[in-house]
Each structure stands twice: as C-alpha cells, then as structure tokens.
Amino acid sequence: MIAFINTDLDLGKRPIFRNLNLTIQPGELVYIVGRSGSGKTTLLKSLYMEVKPSKGEVIVNGLSSRGVRRRKIAMLRRKLGIVFQDFRLLEDRNVYDNLAFVLKVTGTKHSLIKEKVLTALKEVGLENSAKEMVENLSGGEQQRVAIARALVGNPIAIIADEPTGNLDPETSLEILEYLKKINDSGISVIIGTHDYELVRHHPSRTLMISDMNLVECTIEPAPTGTCWRPVPKATAKAS
C-alpha cells in the first residue's frame, strides 16, 4: 500500500503539495494528471524517496519516509520499477545487458538472470531484440525496453513519469497497452501524464493536481467534442 499522510512536498523553496492525504491500494492503476510543471514528477519521486516531505509522511510498502535510512531506501527501490520519459537506457550496451545490469547490481543469482531478462522482454514483445543495441531502436521500442527493465526485478509497483511524453500518439497508446497488461497481472501502476486523451483509452482512477492537492476526477469530452478535459468529482479531495 502507498499512503500520503498530511504531507507537504516542496521543490526547493517552492511549495508543491500541502496537507496531502492519499491512499493507493495494491494492484491499482492510477493516473496523476496535470499540466507540465504542476508537480507530477515531485509526487512520483516521493514514492521512491528521492524527495522527502517537509511535513507529514509518505509510506510505501510499510516503509515510512520519517527518519528512513539510506539502506532501507535502497531496498525499497529494488521493489519498485521506474519508467522515465527519456528512457535512461545504457546506450553502450544491448537490450539484454540493459536488463541484466539491473539484476546483477541487486545480487540476483547468475543462473536466474537469463530467464528473468527474456521473460521481461517477452512481456513487452521484444524477446527477439535482446542482442540489439538500444541506439538502433525506435523511441517506442526503447520505452518498451525501459518498461521491461522496470519489470525484470518483479516489482510491487511500476512508477511511470510521462512515459509517452516523447512519443507519437499511436506509439503512446501501445506503451499504455503494455502498462495496462502489467497492471492486469496484479502489479500496481502509477502513471504521471498531462495527456488526457491517453487516459481516456483506459479509464481508471484519475487524480488531478489542483491548488497544491489532488482531486479525484473523470475524463469527459469538452463541449466542442474535439478535446478532453478533467472534471472534478463531487467528492473533491483524494483520500
């Protein structure tokens, strides 16, 4: 379970969230929506404790941000899969070695690495691309490698920060399909995005950043019928 309890989050001296209370249950698919610069990345970073609250606490898988030690944070991050907008792959290595590297640094037995890597690549349809250098792949393929890398350690949750921000609309939907497939297997998936059209294709719990807090919302058509916008629910604040 993930919980924010009376949490304040800041970016430098800039306040981002104030008195945030939120619970995300195991196995949920949750969208965090908001315009660029609204605080999505800060919120997601707090889940793997790169950002610490200035007040309150964040609890992830039973670990509280209050007084947490570096060793415990490292152990938590091994249980989380993180997907970035800019892929962050090792360009001097092939697809297989990008995933194997993650397992090696976390102490996975050598005899298990090949099976785990190939299984993760199969989940994103890249089992035949293991020996390809990442620089030879398309943007969509590189993001699928990044998703496989996040998946290879059997995480309890996938945290995806604008995972389709550098991709065209069609490829973006393909990436979302893979994330939805992962969620269907029982893994929590939390996606930060400013793309409301993307959310519309696989509706799920959606939280909009508003006035330094999160508001439960639905994605509905704007009056013109040509674009989409978040509509706050009557229940207002997330809980």
Summed up:
Helices cover 32% and strands 31% of the residues. The protein has 239 residues and is of the alpha/beta class. It starts with a strand and ends with a strand.
Q: Helices, strands, pairings?
A:
Layout: E1 2-11, E2 14-24, E3 29-33, H1 40-47, E4 55-60, E5 63-64, H2 70-77, E6 80-83, H3 95-105, H4 110-123, H5 139-151, E7 157-161, H6 169-184, E8 188-193, H7 196-201, E9 205-210, E10 213-221, E11 228-237
Parallel strand pairs: 3-8, 3-9, 6-7, 7-8
Antiparallel strand pairs: 1-2, 1-4, 4-5, 9-10, 10-11
Helix pairs in contact: 3-4, 4-5, 5-6
Written account of the structure:
Residues 2-236 form the ABC transporter domain. Belongs to the ABC transporter superfamily. One of its GO terms (molecular function) is ATP binding. It is a single chain. The protein is of the alpha/beta class. It has a single domain, classed as P-loop containing nucleotide triphosphate hydrolases (Rossmann fold), CATH 3.40.50. It contains 7 helices and 11 strands. The strands form 2 sheets. The chain has a 7-stranded mixed β-sheet, with helices on both faces. It has a 4-stranded antiparallel β-sheet with strand order 2-1-4-5, with helices on one face.
